[in-house]
Write a structure and sequence with these properties.
The protein is built from 14 helices and two strands; from the N terminus they run αααααααββααααααα. By secondary structure, it is mainly α. The protein has a domain of 211 residues. The protein has a two-stranded antiparallel ribbon. The longest helix has 27 residues.
């Protein structure tokens, strides 16, 4: 009887562990890392490759944090990649063409990014446009501005300082500063989402907006602030990108929204709103970045890489839809 009870408790513990999406994704990430390391003769675990991977996933990770908040409210933001690119392009243009101080250019770049977020928030919360339609519009506007500002070419910023370059290319011990900033943002956002009563109103807004309104929550304001925060975080990611590579490409961030949505949904966020965690989004970003790196190390054609990313997004969305059908 004791053995049976012990087995029952163990199986219940395993079920409760795998019931948490974050735990499942974390296990998959570890297994994927082991498999890639074993099939690439340990190249995956070399310091150079890990640092490059961490830097690559940091930018996507910061934008995934922004997307998580938006998804929880029941919205979606397809302009994250354009906002990321516009912030970087603004910094490069202001310092190259007008000799702005780098830090003033950074502030203005962030203001441009926040401005795009404010436009998203206005059209979604005030005009009541569908989030997908509103953010497709700002995605096109942001990308168009990148091409207009740069005339389609890459821009290299002037007047950069060692402190500015350290943000994107510095290393503390073994860990890139870019990655450390990402982790700080993710931890702070997760604490806010879990512990802050005002911030948890995003869950109420996404779960049942009508009930949230009846309980006194100003849901339009919540949505507006959420898109505003998304613009700020994408702007920060864009600033770190230009700090890292010391150049701004007009196409920077193009297509990033698909991978970011996939990472968030894999991590437990729902496209119907009301669900999601920053931890899940971070783990989903690790999974997507490790998979991208694995495809490079396995020498898979870039054309197949886009195909695989698209299939992963379809799989993640399908799992989300099936999960909600089963709950209903």
């Amino acid at each position: 009887m004791e053995n049976r009870a012990l087995l029952h408790r163990s199986s219940s513990g395993l079920r409760s562990l795998f019931a948490r999406r974050e735990a499942t994704v974390a296990i998959i990430v570890v297994l994927l890392a082991i498999i890639v390391g074993a099939t690439t003769h340990g190249i995956f675990f070399t310091p150079q490759n890990l640092q490059a991977t961490f830097i690559s996933l940091a930018g996507y990770g910061i934008m995934a944090v922004a997307m998580t908040f938006v998804l929880i409210t029941g919205g979606i933001d397809l302009s994250v990649g354009s906002t990321y690119g516009l912030a970087a392009m603004t910094v490069a243009a202001l310092t190259k063409y007008y000799s702005f101080n780098i830090w003033i250019a950074v502030i203005l770049g962030l203001l441009f990014a926040v401005g795009l977020g404010a436009v998203n928030g206005f059209f979604v919360s005030k005009v009541k446009l569908a989030p997908m339609i509103a953010t497709i519009g700002t995605m096109s506007v942001g990308r168009g501005l990148c091409y207009v500002i740069s005339n389609g070419s890459n821009l290299t910023p002037n007047n950069t300082t060692p402190a500015f370059r350290f943000l994107g290319s510095g290393i503390i011990g073994f860990i890139p500063m870019y990655f450390i900033i990402f982790i700080i943002i993710a931890v702070f956002a997760e604490i806010l989402l879990k512990r802050s009563v005002p911030v948890r109103k995003v869950f109420y807004t996404g779960s049942n907006e009508t009930a949230a309104k009846l309980s006194g929550i100003k849901t339009p304001k919540i949505k507006f602030v959420t898109y505003l925060l998304g613009g700020l975080l994408c702007g920060i990611a864009g600033i770190l990108y230009i700090s890292r590579f010391n150049t701004a490409a007009a196409s920077a961030g193009r297509g990033a929204e698909m991978k970011i949505i996939a990472a968030c949904v894999i991590g437990g966020a729902s496209l119907t709103g009301g669900e999601g965690t920053v931890l899940g989004a971070v783990l989903g970003t690790f999974l997507m970045s490790f998979l991208d790196n694995a495809q490079v190390l396995w020498k898979i054609s870039v054309y197949y890489q886009d195909l695989i990313s698209g299939l992963i997004l379809l799989l993640a969305v399908s799992i989300d839809a099936i999960t909600h059908m089963r709950k209903r």
